[in-house]
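hey m, so remember when u said the tokens were messed up on ur end? i reran from scratch. heres the input so u can diff it against urs
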Amino acid sequence: MKLTMGEKIRILLKRKNVTIVELSRRLGTSNQNLANKFKRNNFSTRELE
């Protein structure tokens, strides 16, 4: 089974002990916006750099 980008990011966050709330703060976006991106698996190349 192939992992989605959202699943891969969640695994990395868990390994680094970083919450989605902390990641959203670091990215300068709302927690709700980031949660929606995970839900829809909607990440742009720019966001992933």
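this time it looks ok to me. The helical segments are 5-16, 20-27, 31-40, 45-48. if urs says something different then somethings off w ur setup not the seq
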